[in-house]
Amino acid sequence: MLLPEGFAFTQASLQDYADCPRRFQLRYVVNQRWPAVEAEPLFEHELSVRRGERFHRLVERHQLGVPTSQLEILLGTDPTVRGWWQEYLGFAFLHSLSGNRYPELRLSADLGGARVVAALDLLVVQPGYHVYIFDWKTHAPVPRAGWLRERVQTTLYLWMVAEVGPALFGEWVEPERISMIYWFTAAPEAPLRFDYSSAWRVESGARLAGLVGEVLAGDQRLTWPLTAEQRRCRHCVFRSLCARGVVAGSLAELGVGVDGERDFLLAALFEAVDEVGF
Ligand code: SF4
């Protein structure tokens, strides 16, 4: 058997395969443990992860209806988290939306005989009108919209909501009535919104099926292809195993402003910092 019993594809595992088939093989087929850090300095990276988790928990409870006054203990004293929280409370578009709210929603669908799952930070359903997927990103800076549109997360979450719509909402939801909104603590006033379409749904379904099909057709006796883009390896925990370097990429690169470099670190942080739920 190629994959473990009960294995389900996530946006992170599919992104791993899209970025580097060998990384997918090591992580999910071989279950290789390899101690290495994704970004330096380690303390700062781990702190970002913990802050992101705390923020996600706060928003989940708030969206479940817990009053702000009862969230003080969970909020804690970290000024960074408290600042994010204030910005979140000022996210007028979100708070003014009518409809049913489903924070930390897990969705599952069949794709080509495999199970794919998604952990949505928040789904707001306005019956007969519109469906909004929200995703909180707590690391800086904000990526380019074109880059984010091509991430597997965007592809999978929009496709998933369209796919499970009839079961979830009791009615077919046209893709044109589904939007995904990324909200960044680094730029709370400028969320990035992606409006789905029928054409994009066909395209994303084909892309996801292609990725899943390639994985399932993989031969576990062979070494799967290593990415040709070696800049990905700087933030990959397997870099020494693959003889692609020893030293982790630096968080300072986020401030360099060179998209080509910054994107690779952002990609690593997208999975490590805000992948809450799996
Ligand atoms: S170090 Fe590079 S080649 Fe090896 S698994 Fe990671 S991304 Fe792929």
Kindly describe this structure:
The strands form 2 sheets. The chain has a 5-stranded mixed sheet with strand order 2-3-4-5-6, sandwiched between helices. A two-stranded parallel ribbon has the order 1-7. Strand 5 and strand 6 (192-195) form a beta hairpin. It is 42% helix and 17% strand. The chain has helices at residues 11-19, 21-29, 42-63, 72-75, 79-89, 92-96, 145-149, 152-169, 198-216, 259-273, and strands spanning 39-40, 100-111, 114-126, 130-137, 178-184, 192-195, 249-250. The protein has 278 residues and is an alpha/beta fold. The chain has one domain (11-273): Lambda Exonuclease, Chain A. The model has no long low-confidence stretch (mean pLDDT 88). It binds iron/sulfur cluster.
How much of the polypeptide forms β-strand, as a percent range?
15-25%
Number of strands: 7
| Broad shape | globular
Q: What is the top-level CATH class?
A: Alpha Beta
Most strands sheet = 5 strands, mixed
CATH architecture: Alpha-Beta Complex
* Order of strands, widest sheet: 2-3-4-5-6
* N-C termini distance: 22 Å
pLDDT averaged residue by residue: 88
Q: What are the segments in which pLDDT stays under 50 over at least 5 consecutive residues?
A: none
- The total number of structural domains is 1
Assign the CATH topology: Lambda Exonuclease, Chain A
Mind telling me the C-alpha Rg? 19 Å
Can you write the helix and strand succession as a string?
Answer: HHEHHHHEEEHHEEHEH
Could you say which small molecules are bound to this protein? iron/sulfur cluster
Q: How would you classify the helix and strand content by structural class?
A: alpha/beta
